[in-house]
Model the fold of this input.
Amino acid sequence: MTCKIAPSILSANFLHLEDEIRAVEKAGADILHLDIMDGHFVPNLTFGPGLVKQVRRTTNLPLDAHLMITNPADFIDKFIDAGVNYLSFHIETDSNYKELFRKIRKQNVKVGIAINPETSLAGLSSVLDEIDYVLIMSVHPGFGGQSYIYDSAEKARETRDIIGNRNIEIEIDGGINFETAKLSKEAGVNILVAGSFIFKSEDYQYTIQGLRNV
Ligand code: DX5
Ligand code: ZN
Done:
């Protein structure tokens, strides 16, 4: 199974963001991962729909917004209007999450359930008809450059079993390098998010192709 590679711009040089995006696109990225943090759900702040709109004008890559915010319902329409193609949020943040899944899907945007390292997969089987992908966090969300939590590969494997033959993608996010990409891929992951490993590397093409071919 070939993996899609999704660079997270969290670790890009924001003073040269347009060049950074063009560079990963040219280097073979499949998706651009956008980490949205609010300082409440996670102890960090990033950017909002305004910047995403500008990113949309810069690239044709599918945009994957990962909402790490307390009130996703207030922002879903804004990110969809800004042009995202994938939208995930953490279901701990909204008790009406099924309604939100449906609302996102109705607008032809792929919807994902984001699962923190300490969150179990118990709720997953009840939402399989409502989602397009599962985002497994392999670090505690909030910052780039952390180390992969090794239990995540097992979690991906369990997710693959729960999904069965449904058309649901598995994305993994955090601490991805050549070694952890291989473990994740063997566990059934098909979208690898990588921030620091790509943007801190000397040669984006070498790193992206290397991740794809692990
Ligand atoms: C962390 C974010 C990740 C982050 C990954 O909360 O969700 O997308 O950018 O960064 P690396 O690949 O550096 O662990
Ligand atoms: Zn992310």
Q: What stands out?
A: DSSP finds eight helices and eight strands in the chain.
